[in-house]
Amino acid sequence: VNPSDVIILEGILLFHDSRVRDLMNMKIFVDTDADVRLTRRIRRDTIEKGRDIIAVLDQYSKFVKTAFEDFILPTKKYADIIIPRGADNSVAIDLIVQHIRTKLGQNDLCKIHPNLYVIQTTYQIRGMHTIIRDAATTTHDFIFYADRLIRLVVEHGLGHLPFREKQVITPTGSVYTGVDFSKSLCGISVIRSGESMENALRACCKGIKIGKILIHREGDDGKQLIYHNLPKDIAKRHVLLLDPILGTGNSAVQAISLLLEKRVQEANIIFLNLIS
Predict the structure, then answer these.
(1) Is the pLDDT of residue 6 over 90?
(2) What is the distance of C-alpha 233 from the center of its chain?
(3) Alpha carbon distance, N-terminus to C-terminus of the chain
(4) Where are the beta strands (DSSP E) in the chain?
(5) How far apart are CA 74 and CA 80, in angstroms?
(6) Does the keyword Transmembrane apply (predicted)?
C-alpha cells in the first residue's frame, strides 16, 4: 500500500485477524438492523439476480444469518466506533470526519510516533539547509554543507544505540565511569543517494561494515529490489539504514522489509534521513 494521508480498509471479516487490527488507528463497525439487511438482500436477489423469494429466504435462514452471527457479529467487540443505521447516521459520520481532520492537522509527528526523532533546529542548521536548498549554490559548497548536515544526523543516530556502563583509568590514575556503545553495528546504504552518507558514518565509526541495497523504481508506485549485499551476521547487529532523501517512502519500506526478512530485529533498525 502506498503511503497516503488516509487509508480505508473495508470488509465484513476485517476485524477477524489481530494482525490487521493492530495496524488500524480507528476501527468502525457499521451496524444495520437485521430486518433492513434482509430486505436489501431480497430486493437485490429478486430484482438483479432473478431469484425466487422463497429460495432467498431459505438461503438466508440456513446460511447467511448463522454465518453472520457466528463470524461477523462477534468481531463487533473490537470496534472503536459502532455506527447504527449505516450511511443514514449523518451525526456519527460527521464526528468521524472531524476526528480525521483533527489527526491530519497534527503537524508534530514526534508526538504521534514516539520512535521518531528530529534534530533540534538551530540557526546554524537552518543556515546550512538554506545553502543546500538554494539553486544558485555551487557544487563545492553543496557537498561541503551537505556533509556537515549528514555528520550531525549520523551523530544523532548513534546517540540512540544501546550503551553500557564502563569504567576506565584516567592518566591521573583516577577512575572515570563512562559508557561504551554497542560493538555489533553496521551501516546499510540505499543506493544511490545513501552512499553520500557513508563517509560521515566511517568518520564516526572506524572500520564499520557497510552493506548495500539497490531498489529500482518503475512508474509512480512501482518498486523492485534489484541487488543487496549485506553482512552475513546482520541479524546480530544494530543497523543504521542510510537514505538522505525520503519522498514517498516506498524505498524505505522495502529496505526495512528486506532487513526484517534477514531476521534483523525491528528495534535494532535506525533509519537516518536528511530531508523528508
Answers:
(1) no
(2) 25
(3) 19
(4) 28-31, 81-84, 163-169, 175-181, 185-191, 209-218, 222-229, 238-242, 269-272
(5) 14
(6) no
For the chain, list the domains and their CATH numbers.
18-105 (3.40.50.300), 123-272 (3.40.50.2020)
In angstroms, the CA 96 to CA 29 distance is 12
Q: What is the mean pLDDT of the chain?
A: 89
User: 41 in the Ramachandran plot: left (φ > 0), alpha (ψ -120 to 50) or beta?
Assistant: alpha
Cell digits of residue 270: 535506525
Burial track 205-225 (b if 16+ CB lie within 10 A, e otherwise): beeebbbbbbbeeeeeeeeee
Angle between helices 139-158 and 123-133 (to 10 degrees): 140
**Which residues have CB under 8 Å from 177's CB, separation 6+?**
165, 166, 167
Please determine, for residue 221, whether its predicted confidence score (pLDDT) is greater than 70. no
Residues 131-150: b if buried by 16+ CB within 10 A, e if exposed:
bbeeeebeeeeeeebbbebb
Task: Specify burial of residue 174 (Cβ count, 10 A radius: 0-12, 13-18, 19+).
Answer: exposed
Q: For 41-85, write each residue's pLDDT tens digit.
A: 999 999 999 999 999 999 999 999 999 999 999 999 999 999 998
Instruction: Identify the bridge partners of residue 222 per DSSP, sorted by sequence position.
Output: 218
Are 153 and 272 in contact by the 8 Å Cβ rule? The answer is yes
DSSP 3-state assignment of 93?
Answer: helix
Q: Extract the C-alpha cell encoding 275.
A: 530531508
Contacts of 82 by beta carbon, 8 Å cutoff, 6+ apart: 28, 29, 31, 76
H helices of 105-249, where? 109-112, 123-133, 139-158, 198-204
CA distance 255 to 191: 11
